[in-house]
Design goal:
Layout (H helix, E strand, L loop, with lengths): L16 H20 L10 E6 L5 H12 L3 E5 L12 H11 L2 E5 L3 H11 L3 E3 L7 H15 L6 E5 L5 H12 L3 E5 L8 H14 L2 E5 L2 H5 L4 E4 L11 H9 L6 H6 L5 E4 L10 H10 L8 H4 L6 H20 L2
Parallel strand pairs: 1-2, 1-3, 3-4, 5-6, 5-8, 6-7, 8-9
Bound molecules: phosphoric acid mono(formamide)ester and norvaline.
């Protein structure tokens, strides 16, 4: 049997395909129970601290609502709301928080920080995004793929964009674990780290997954079941990278040409926030400097029948709740 009690959720590499399967099934059960109004609370009396070095909408709200739905209490510590990382070390902070809370969510820069929190706090720690990985996002993405396409195994998932970022890395690992066909569509310089690619190819030997890199967008998207993209510049990256990213990734924009070479029932996914129109401050700023009105995805694709981005966003709630229930629930 699968038992995740007391476990941390730091990266998908730490989990077996069966354990990931278990979390996806639990997510689906919790979603159904909430919809039916029969959700059972398994986290009464628990306290969870949400520590953020970077901002968030979905991840924070999913942890807050997920915990409250299950009867737990949360404390939000934002980028400027605590001593963490400034006056107090990761190790000391972990020891303090571990004495007051039953679990810790961390979003930040270094993967080594979230790993250290788990090591020194003695309670389950959840990775709500680091520069390297965004594992809770992948659970929501895979639940969404299953809801729309029925199953994961053998499905072709193309990640177009900066495939070295947290999303490219995590999708590749998740796809390897679940036996999917993963393609990174990006120029060579933005392919995931070779060591991680090789690790995923090893996992793929066991699971039947296929891991590919491709620097030709239309070739990559041919017969795709899922086309996924993410922002071209991630949180924490310096302003200066915009110019080169735009130049490098323009050919990898998800537009109707990409959708047309994919399977007719292809779904478009994005972890969000997305740059698809000029209705944000960042977009207006980039527009002024570089003249673009859309970036990683066109507004047409974002709003098309292929787009499942808001269902994907909702599924952050059900999957993050499942991680908490599995690890600290009664
Ligand atoms: N997808 C995602 O993690 O969104 P937030 O940054 O809003 O949490
Ligand atoms: N790669 C993006 C993901 C946001 C959810 C970032 O790190 O900013």
């Amino acid at each position: 049997a699968v038992n995740l009690k007391g476990r941390s959720f730091l990266k998908l590499l730490d989990f077996t395909p069966r354990e990931i399967r278990y979390l996806l099934d639990l997510s689906r059960d919790l979603k159904r129970a909430k919809y039916a109004g029969v959700e059972q609370k398994t986290m009464e009396g628990k306290n969870v601290v949400l520590l953020f070095q970077k901002d968030s909408t979905r991840t924070r709200c999913a942890f807050e609502v997920g915990a409250l739905d299950q009867g737990a209490h949360v404390t939000y510590l934002g980028p400027s709301g605590s001593q963490f990382g400034k006056k107090e070390s990761v190790e000391d902070s972990a020891k303090v928080l571990g004495r007051m809370y039953d679990a810790i969510q961390f979003r930040g820069y270094k993967q080594s920080d979230v790993e250290a929190l788990a090591k020194y706090s003695g309670v389950p720690v959840y990775n709500g995004l680091t520069d390297e990985f965004h594992p809770t996002q992948i659970l929501a993405d895979f639940l969404t793929v299953e809801e729309h396409l029925g199953y994961l195994k053998g499905r072709k998932l193309v990640f177009a964009g900066d495939a070295r970022n947290n999303m490219g890395n995590s999708l590749m690992v998740g796809a390897a674990k679940m036996g999917m066909h993963f393609v990174a569509a990006a120029p060579k310089d933005l392919w995931p780290d070779v060591a991680l690619v090789n690790q995923c190819k090893e996992i793929a030997k066991e699971t039947g997954a296929k891991i590919e890199m491709c620097d030709d967008m239309l070739k990559a998207c041919k017969d795709a079941d899922v086309i996924y993209t993410d922002v071209w510049v991630s949180m924490g990256e310096p302003e200066e990278v915009w110019a080169s990213r735009i130049k490098d990734l323009k050919p990898f924009q998800v537009n109707m040409a990409a959708i047309k070479v994919a399977k007719s029932e292809v779904i478009f996914m994005h972890c969000l926030p997305a740059f698809h129109d000029l209705n944000t401050e960042v977009a207006q700023d980039v527009h002024k400097k570089f003249g673009l009105t859309e970036m990683e995805v066109t507004n047409e694709v974002f709003n098309s029948k292929h787009s499942v981005v808001f269902e994907e966003a909702e599924n952050r709630l059900h999957t993050i709740k499942a991680v908490m229930v599995a690890t600290i629930g009664k």
